[in-house]
Amino acid sequence: MTKITIDTFEIKASSHALSSFVLYQITLPAGGVIHRRFSEFVWLVESLNRAVPGAVVPPLPPDTGGKGNVDMSFINERRVGLAGFLNAVRAHEELGEISCFR
């Protein structure tokens, strides 16, 4: 099974605040590319929990832990963790078939 990968990211300035966020570039097994920020992964976990009550949804990598979201080592650790999360959801018998994941 071809893996979902997150090889690159971009730090973006938020338009409504003085903060920034990270936009991850996700390469899908079929070759498509999508961009998501961490808050969209949080939404996905919540949606999967609602769609399949009682299913064990893989955990997301930890929050910033006070480092701020522009620390490069933190971003790289999170990038690897998010790719692992997506692949675990994809491999799950039920979760991988839910429309909010597809």
Brief write-up:
The chain is α+β, with helices and mostly antiparallel strands. It has two helices and three strands, in the order βββαα.
What's the overall geometry?
globular
Number of DSSP helical runs: 2
Low-confidence stretches: none
Taken together, the total number of domains comes to 1
Global mean pLDDT: 90
User: Which superfamily, in CATH terms, is the homologous superfamily?
Assistant: Phox-like domain
Lateral strand order in the biggest sheet: 1-2-3
Beta fraction? 15-25%
CATH architecture: 2-Layer Sandwich
- Portion of residues in helices? 25-40%
* CATH class (first level) name: Alpha Beta
What sequence of helices (H) and strands (E) makes up the elements?
EEEHH
What does the radius of gyration come to? 14 Å
What does this structure look like?
The chain is α+β, with helices and mostly antiparallel strands and 102 residues long. It has a single domain (5-97), classed as Phox-like domain (PX Domain). 33% of the residues lie in helices and 22% in strands. It has a 3-stranded antiparallel beta sheet with strand order 1-2-3. The two termini are 16 Å apart. The model has no long low-confidence stretch (mean pLDDT 90).
List the keywords:
single chain, 102 residues, alpha+beta, PX Domain, 2 helices, 3 strands
Outline the secondary-structure elements.
Blueprint (H helix, E strand, L loop, with lengths): L4 E9 L6 E8 L5 E5 H14 L20 H20 L11
